[in-house]
Specification:
With 170 residues, the protein is an alpha+beta fold. Helix 2 crosses helix 4. It is built from six helices and four strands. The longest helix has 18 residues. It has a four-stranded antiparallel β-sheet with strand order 1-2-4-3, with helices on both faces. The chain has a single domain, classed as NADH Oxidase. It is globular, with a radius of gyration of 17 Å. It starts with a helix and ends in a 5-residue tail after the last helix. The structure holds flavin mononucleotide. Flavin mononucleotide binds next to strand 3. Flavin mononucleotide (FMN) binds next to strand 3.
Length: 170
């Protein structure tokens, strides 16, 4: 699929079939993710995923599922890989995590799956449930085959115009 088509097709899916996602598709997605850029190629992320109800409960700290999805990824930052740019003092881990999550989201579209990016979860509970040492859960990516009832939320269509957000500086 062309990237333009992926951008046009993708929307936040909030209703999934229980149909399991094939491991080959998960592997394909992760193979696309590993090629994503990160600042200084630091790769400060770890991805955990679950496709069983018990695994999903652990990842989501007690929630049975998100929108019936059969597959949940948790994207974590690696605490010891946080670093500050010497000149600016800036830290880029959250930008890196956003790139990884976005790549995963578009990769899911590429292999014919729906997804929704979820930050409304309790990272501390997830960390405790999984006994994570040195990792901070940053966001979830909830993935699966969209159900027949799946459709974009009205918010999906509420887009600023290019003229509103993009400005040429001359
Ligand atoms: C950082 C981030 C956090 C989000 N958290 C949630 C969430 O917790 N729950 C949810 O249903 N959607 C969540 N979303 C999805 C957004 O609501 C959605 O992308 C936005 O409304 C645009 O709609 P669209 O994805 O259908 O184009 C999140 C998206 C992003 C980028």
């Amino acid at each position: 699929m062309h990237f333009k088509d992926i951008c046009n097709q993708r929307y936040s899916v909030r209703s999934f079939l229980s149909k399991p996602v094939e491991q080959e598709k998960i592997d394909e997605i992760l193979d696309m993710v590993k090629k994503a850029p990160t600042a200084r190629n630091n790769q400060p992320y770890e991805i955990l995923y679950a496709k069983t109800p018990a695994g999903i409960q652990k990842l989501t700290a007690g929630r049975d599922s998100f929108f019936g999805a059969p597959l949940v990824f948790v994207i974590c930052s690696i605490d010891e890989k946080r670093w500050h740019n010497r000149q600016s003092g800036r830290e880029f881990t959250l930008q890196d995590i956003g790139i990884i999550a976005t790549t995963l989201m578009y990769a899911a579209t590429e292999v014919g799956l729906g997804s929704v990016y979820v930050c409304a979860f309790d990272p501390i509970k997830t960390k405790e449930a999984l006994h994570l040492e040195g990792l901070t859960p940053e966001c979830l990516m909830v993935v699966g085959y969209p159900s027949d009832a799946a459709e974009p939320a009205p918010m999906h269509f509420d887009r600023r115009s290019v003229e509103d957000f993009a400005h040429e500086i001359i």
